[in-house]
Amino acid sequence: MNSSRLLLLGAEAVAQGAIDAGISGVYAYPGTPSTEITEYIQRSALARESGVRSSWSANEKTAYEAALGMAYAGKRSLVCMKHVGLNVAADAFINSAITGVNGGLVLAVADDPSMHSSQNEQDSRVYGRFAMVPVLEPSSQQELYDAMFHAFELSESVKLPVIVRMTTRLSHSRAGVGRRDSVAQNPLHAEYAPERFVLMPHNARVQYRHLLELQPKLETLSESSFLNRAVEGSGPLGVIAFGIGFNYVMEARRMHGIECRVLKVGQYPPPRRQIDELFAACDEVLVVEEGYPVYEELFRGYFGSPKIRGRMDGALPRDGEMTTDLVASALGATPAETTAVPEIVINRPPELCRGCGHRDMFEAINTVMREQAEHHVFSDIGCYTLGALSPFSAIHTCVDMGAAITMAKGAADAGLRPAVCVIGDSTFAHSGMTGLLDAVNDRSPITVIIADNDTTAMTGGQCSSASGSKLERICRGLGVEEAHLRSITPLKQHLDENIAVLREEFAYDGVSVVIARRECIETAARKKRRSAAKGE
Amino acid sequence: MEKNIILAGVGGQGILSIAAVIDWAALDAGLVIRQAEVHGMSQRGGAVQSHLRISDRELFADLIAHGTADLILSVEPLESLRYLPWLAPEGHVVTSTDPFVNVQGYPPVERIIKALRSAVNPLLVPAEQLAREAGSVRASNMVMLGAAAPFTGIEPERLEAGIQALFGAKGAQIVDINIRAFRKGLTLSNANQTTS
Hints:
The complex is a heterodimer. Chain A is α/β, with parallel strands linked by helices. Chain A has helices at about 10-20, 35-45, 45-50, 60-70, 85-100, 125-130, 140-160, 170, 195, 200-225, 245-255, 270-280, 295-300, 325-330, 355-370, 405-415, 425-440, 470-480, 495-505, 520-535, and strands at about 1-10, 25-30, 75-80, 105-110, 135, 160-165, 175-180, 230, 235-240, 260-265, 265-270, 285-290, 310, 375-380, 395-400, 420-425, 445-450, 485-490, 510-515. Chain A has a six-stranded mixed sheet with strand order 2-3-4-6-5-11, with helices on both faces. In chain A, strands 15-14-16-17-19-18 form a six-stranded parallel sheet, sandwiched between helices. In chain A, α13 links the parallel β12 and β13 (about 310). Chain B is built from seven helices and six strands; from the N terminus they run βαβββαβαβαααα. Chain B has a six-stranded mixed sheet with strand order 2-3-1-4-5-6. Chain B starts with a strand and ends with a helix. In chain B, about 55% of the residues are buried. The mean pLDDT of chain B is about 95. The interface between A and B is large, with 54 and 53 residues. β7 of chain A pairs antiparallel with β2 (about 30-35) of chain B, so a sheet runs across the interface.
């Protein structure tokens, strides 16, 4: 055991754990609350010295497939994303459970219950069940670190990808973490195994049966996992606490002097024997999950069980993040008397930075839109989504990565004019290009405004896969006509000419692209500070 | 020893630097730490908070339970009110009196102070003024840390060592300004405690 303790975010504990467990590469697309895993590996001197590959991927699907390829070649690979990113990578992910892996493959996925920075609060454990692969859900930063070693060993021993699931609260919370001795990287060792990796039906059927046969073994492995353990207690009420639900249960127990039995579960499939024991010992069982009531529903069964309490009977809320207060009240504790928030406290929602180019872009869009009979602007996921809020109220949709272009196309096909959409450079690279190709092939009359600030800004300024002149080359290559591939500079002094360009292109009866290009002011300021520091 | 601290402010005001100094000092003192922070969308000019827990025994939850915060340290007056439900009956509120107005309907500062006084006995800190006296208005957050230092359960010397460690890479001048700012806050806080 390395004696020095590091103060790490949960996400960083995953990163340090992966480096020390001997990964040869990390693949990821930024997304809150998962971004810091890859950023940490990019900054790590140890990772650099040992040649760990770590630059950003175009999207989660390309990331996952590359990680699978690295595992195919016998090395350990890590792939990271936020929960909704797994929807993008789902095709590759589900099928990788059928092919299995050679070197260890760990998917670190960060869910966002309460939707602090997301469109939904889907629970990635459902994907784990869907693909029938092991899921680890550590409850502390130290456990996250230790779980990375365990995850790679498990992945290589059962030859399956392994999910490490965490949620916002653990990913974005710091604690002291002790390190272990690091493991050397695997040698290159690619095997010819077409019977596993060529998923034609005759192979896939055999592989799928193999995956089914593995399930009892996975359950047995959970029985002995360090992530699952029983906490002694007494009384008629027992608790099954999954992931960081365990933390709130233990906190509430200590705070209110409750002596109940607790079963901590941090490795799935859940340990059947330990669960049976708890159910046999208790009259009532509270199920605490940070996310969907995935296992509560399973335990209840279709016909229900009067013995089980949790999110589905109102003992805990059906949605949102868990807290000590919620668990304490479900355990029967009296809530503390608290001071109310005075009425004068108003909300302070996030906003576009002062001086941000998106502000000038939205001002131009709004001006031209006011001249139109229909004012719909389809948009996407990034800082510019804040254009939905006052004072701009400039965009009217934000659904999933890339949907701006394709929804505008569908609306144009339905007859909506003008059909205008706004998408960022990084989001365009992620999932916008294919939709633009659809529009070109169909000659759908849409205007695509690419807000090119040369970075993935919302998540903190990561490298964008396509910005600058690369965007023009992509659009040209996809078949956008030269005369309708325009660029503007969203600055106050260019407002009039920008309005003129948008007016012309909104009126064009075909595909047009307007690139609104100005560097993110945050990124620019950071570059300036860095070069000033170097100059000293 | 166990302290639950809520750090409050607006995205970009530097509450994470305050957290980093306390974290460093707590780790140096061999204490257990849990410090939850806000990243992502809400960061941009929105209300942000950090739950910071330090203890000499095992901690479980990253979040502070209602009614159990020993300290609310706010670098903005309106934000100090937002987290009152977390404050323990004997808890302290230390807040800057410099408003950060980026929303419509922001109440007059006098009304904020009045609302605060009707709930608790707050320590009010003219942070920007003291930071300017220390050499830079950007050190306001360290003024606030100094003013809150007596309620953190960590010795001021150790917090100063944390400032040294955190700002060391930016040069001796930056360290000096931040240490001076910290001491101005601490002096104000100590004077206030002896008079009240």
